[in-house]
């Protein structure tokens, strides 16, 4: 007997043994069969074997990258490729991504804790239950939780009529804070409010 293996209806060069190990690149559906010919020249084809190659699963995270302290921020895991169901493990790093620990969250979305100000790193690991060659881990995202600013109190001040009043500076606990002030008595020559 002679053998000729075929891929999607076309002869596979060099595939003329009675066994064949497919070498398939790319993704998609592939049909493989073998045409067997006897010494009299009579040929018969085997039933096609269908091989489906799916893309590896990949994961990425979408969502805002900053939130005010005690505010709300939700990250979403987006997974493509693979088959079956996906199980999520959201992980957190406090050292720039050198080490990771599980947050215990297993949903496709993750509510970022924001009670503590600082810079935090998150990623998601996805477990694929169906056909896949990998369990992907997303690239990490950097989340900044901005502290709640407070204004340092200004002491009451008393000045005489026509006396020069020195400039008063507003200060707070967070660098870069913008202050909005109001004045209840414009008769003293000061505007009713401003920003600075």
Task: Provide a short characterization of the protein structure.
This protein has 196 residues and is mostly beta strands.
Report on this structure:
- The model has no long low-confidence stretch (mean pLDDT 90).
- This protein starts with a strand and ends with a strand.
- The radius of gyration is 34 Å and the shape is rod-shaped.
- It is mostly beta strands and 196 residues long.
- 11% of the residues are buried.
- It has strands spanning 2-7, 10-11, 28-37, 43-45, 49-53, 58-62, 66-68, 74-80, 86-93, 101-102, 109-111, 118-128, 141-146, 180-182, 193-195.
> Residue ranges: pLDDT <50 for 5 or more in a row?
none
Termini gap: 92 Å
Structural class: mainly beta
Sheet having the most strands: 5 strands, antiparallel
Q: Give the overall form.
A: rod-shaped
SSE run: EEEEEEEEEEEEEEE
Question: How large is the share of residues in beta strands?
Answer: 35-45%
What is the radius of gyration? Answer: 34 Å
Query: Level of helix content?
Result: under 10%
Mean pLDDT: 90
Give structural attributes:
196 residues; mainly beta; 5-stranded antiparallel β-sheet; 5-stranded mixed β-sheet; 0% helix; 39% strand
List the helices and strands and how they pair.
Elements: E1 2-7, E2 10-11, E3 28-37, E4 43-45, E5 49-53, E6 58-62, E7 66-68, E8 74-80, E9 86-93, E10 101-102, E11 109-111, E12 118-128, E13 141-146, E14 180-182, E15 193-195
Parallel strand pairs: 7-13
Antiparallel strand pairs: 1-2, 1-3, 3-4, 3-5, 6-8, 8-11, 9-10, 9-12, 12-13, 14-15
């Amino acid at each position: 007997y002679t053998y000729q293996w075929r891929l999607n209806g076309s002869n596979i060069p060099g595939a003329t043994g009675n066994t064949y190990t497919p070498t398939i690149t790319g993704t998609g559906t592939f049909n493989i069969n073998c045409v067997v010919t006897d010494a009299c020249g009579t040929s018969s084809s085997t039933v096609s074997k269908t091989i489906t190659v799916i893309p590896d699963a990949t994961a990425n995270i979408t969502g805002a990258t900053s939130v005010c302290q005690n505010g709300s921020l939700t990250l979403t895991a987006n997974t493509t490729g693979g088959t079956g169901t996906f199980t999520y493990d959201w992980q957190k790093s406090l050292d720039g991504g050198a080490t990771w620990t599980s947050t215990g969250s297993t949903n496709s979305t993750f509510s970022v804790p924001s009670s503590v100000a600082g810079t935090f790193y998150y990623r998601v690991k996805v477990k694929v239950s169906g056909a896949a060659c990998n369990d992907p881990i997303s690239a990490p995202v950097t989340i900044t939780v901005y502290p709640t600013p407070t204004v340092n109190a200004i002491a009451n001040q008393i000045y005489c009529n026509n006396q020069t009043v020195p400039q008063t500076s507003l200060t707070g606990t967070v660098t870069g804070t913008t202050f909005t002030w109001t004045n209840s008595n414009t008769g003293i020559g000061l505007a009713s409010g401003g920003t600075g």
